[in-house]
Amino acid sequence: MTTTPDLRQDHPTGTPVPPEVREAVLDVARRAGAAARVLATATRATKDAALHAMADALVASTAEIVEANAVDLERGRAAGTSAGLLDRLALTPDRVAAIAAALRELASLPDPVGEVVRGSTLPNGLRLRQVRVPLGVVGMIYEARPNVTVDAAGLALKSGNAAILRGGSAAAASNTVVVGVLREALRAAGLPADAVQSIDEHGRAGAVALMHARGLVDLLVPRGGADLIRTVVQEATVPVVETGTGNCHVYVDASADPAVALPIILNSKTQRVGVCNAAETLLVHRDAAATFLPPALAALHDAGVTLHGDDRTAAHAPEGVTVVPATEEDWATEYLSLDLAVRVVDSLEEAVDHIRAWSSGHTEAIVTADLAASETFVAQVDSAAVMVNASTRFTDGGEFGLGAEIGISTQKMHARGPMGLPELTTTKWVVHGDGQVRP
Amino acid sequence: MTTTPDLRQDHPTGTPVPPEVREAVLDVARRAGAAARVLATATRATKDAALHAMADALVASTAEIVEANAVDLERGRAAGTSAGLLDRLALTPDRVAAIAAALRELASLPDPVGEVVRGSTLPNGLRLRQVRVPLGVVGMIYEARPNVTVDAAGLALKSGNAAILRGGSAAAASNTVVVGVLREALRAAGLPADAVQSIDEHGRAGAVALMHARGLVDLLVPRGGADLIRTVVQEATVPVVETGTGNCHVYVDASADPAVALPIILNSKTQRVGVCNAAETLLVHRDAAATFLPPALAALHDAGVTLHGDDRTAAHAPEGVTVVPATEEDWATEYLSLDLAVRVVDSLEEAVDHIRAWSSGHTEAIVTADLAASETFVAQVDSAAVMVNASTRFTDGGEFGLGAEIGISTQKMHARGPMGLPELTTTKWVVHGDGQVRP
């Protein structure tokens, strides 16, 4: 009945799990655990060779992959899926090559496993090291884009983890072929094929069984829209990192230079719309409103942005620019579209309070020429990333120079902000002695 | 009806929460959040001065504290509480002084807040820093020992977090006085008294309400027995770090020097019995069994240890040493008493498999003279700490030289092993630009 890959349909809370699905998924998880034990001691050379083998195999299987993808696209078209979603789902030879290139890029990144985080020799002669080790088994539940399948498998492998993948049903045929290609490449490279497994065949019930596989799954990362993430966070009994919901704010301070502020809000809102680090609300200090808002509202309007504003914002709208009255709903919404909520605030403090009340804790930006204002904003805003005079769009593992990312954590535990390879590891204390006992 | 502070009674799953208790606890959490906002920007000097003020105030209130403690002790005695538990509950002037000294010790530790974890200048000129910041509001649910009240409050304050404390009902009178003294000292030091709050008055329902205060509590740390920890992990919807369950193993390898192995197992088992880093199972390679086990079993027996062994262990018991037949229950049990499970294994691999199957992931030790065996053990054992030729008892924040600890994490996410001040923080990405936008 649904015309788009609806995540609430794919991953509803309370989906019953038939015993045979539960057993099948637990069996997948156990095999992942056995593979993880091998991966944990695989050298960087072995893992990088496997990543290159996976890239080679994907390129060699381009025709087969594109053919399977055509089945998904045809099914999507028949179901009336939107052009935008079909585009995200589509694989061309160029896209397959780009996905393979991303694996080679991963191979070039340093291996987090084995890094000594801290170490010392204690007064009693014990040699202490805190060493990075893989988490073990990492689950990913994500949406239709088949490139995530390869990304997630590669990131997990490079960080020494076995991956259990649950992709969106809309990409089922593509993912089946891709996972088969990756597994064959792993086997050929001398690593266990079970380092990468898919549970797509078990549908929604399989996803729920994965969320409940406590003791067998060390980390579950949901990657997708707000509904998917909420469902996984609420339903999972395995450890989850909450990613990617971005109700991001740009605050234009009283002292802001309009020539700096205008490009930043335009870029934050319109450079790419459907992503978590796009801005959704603009807050403007009342002292900046009269000079900044008229040209800013006009420029945003010209860029196709629908403006949702409070009364004071509307009062500054130039002729021909409509401002839809904003409600609390607008402050709370991650539009992921060419919509922007706009509010005039009386002070920096009011801006911070607004952000603390409504933000999802992803990224907030201040545009200011006032040093003290920038420092207060940085100190008081409680989000994963705080930008001073820069676009919110920079919160990204690649932009930060961290290499690939598996998602952007909006929680405070374990990882916050872009999650790269080190965030897919834990640590182990290794202590060497010569017979020491506690007195 | 219960004669000891029973944790299942104190913290049962499914306890109904009356709306007025829920509201009262949420109000406590909101006030903690407001206090946390102040603490987040308090300087180290301010926080250390407050720690010293708290220590001074505790010492100055010794008589009042000991008097309140006498009420708890009297109630405990009347209820038939064991001598051991009464001793853990008891506060003397010397103990109050020691608790105050621990606060001064905390003041001497470096402040984790503000530490720059990573940083770089990006090609586009953005200045990037990943900075440690407080988590915000930290809840602690713990057992009867009133020193934990002060410890937890001090650790939270030093790391810039507001603390919400729920102590065991057996220490209610002591905790009420102690929390009152700490709050008064905070106020006098110019920090919000709500940086330390108790919800003891709301009983079990209050503890459950705290576990459910999602969005208002950034971290909940259960500290106590396995039942308490299990209840909190199962019931909480706020982020939890699982601490302290220690089913620890000592493995005596074929190559072990008995003169090294014997002191290590004796120390690991008997140096202190009721603690999470005490050993609960001894695994012995079959090639070491004939020489090692007879004197080891005799020495353990002489130290008052009840031995639970498999058949091959029993076969090596010297005359007069009883070995109770061990069952799977013994492999699974954290005795926390003078009991030890003993098993003979055929190989290092079998030892590792046993540990991976039964361990709680706290601490395991190998005694060996074989370098390759030590390396395999370190690589294959999946626990927070792995000891080579040293007692399991060393897994401790103080012993590791990390300063005070709030608990020992047995999970892989966020923190693993002893949790000190840095583990009570998260990070924030702070990015400074000059108007940069994404091309």
Could you explain the architecture of this structure?
The structure is a homodimer of 439-residue chains. Chain A is an alpha/beta fold and 439 residues long. The first copy, chain A, folds into two domains: 7-243 and 419-427, Aldehyde Dehydrogenase, Chain A, domain 1, CATH 3.40.605.10; 248-399, Aldehyde Dehydrogenase, Chain A, domain 2, CATH 3.40.309. Chain A has 16 helices and 16 strands. In chain A, the strands form four sheets. Chain A has a seven-stranded parallel sheet with strand order 10-9-11-8-7-12-13, sandwiched between helices. A four-stranded parallel sheet of chain A has the order 5-4-3-6, with helices on both faces. The radius of gyration of chain A is 24 Å and the shape is globular. At the A-B interface, helix 11, helix 16, strand 13 and strand 16 of A face helix 11, helix 16, strand 13 and strand 16 of B.
Walk me through the topology.
Two copies of one chain form a homodimer.
Chain A: H1 7-10, H2 19-39, H3 44-60, H4 62-78, H5 83-89, H6 93-108, E1 116-121, E2 127-134, E3 137-142, H7 147-158, E4 162-166, H8 172-188, E5 196-198, H9 203-211, E6 219-223, H10 226-235, E7 248-252, H11 258-270, E8 279-285, H12 286-302, E9 306-309, H13 311-314, E10 323-325, H14 328-332, E11 339-345, H15 348-358, E12 363-367, H16 371-380, E13 385-390, E14 407-409, E15 417-419, E16 425-436
Parallel strand pairs in A: 3-4, 3-6, 4-5, 7-8, 7-12, 8-11, 9-10, 9-11, 12-13
Antiparallel strand pairs in A: 1-2, 2-16, 14-15
Helix pairs in contact in A: 2-9, 3-6, 3-8, 4-8, 6-7, 11-12
Domain Aldehyde dehydrogenase (chains A, B): 22-302
Protein name (chains A, B): Gamma-glutamyl phosphate reductase
Main location (chains A, B): cytoplasm
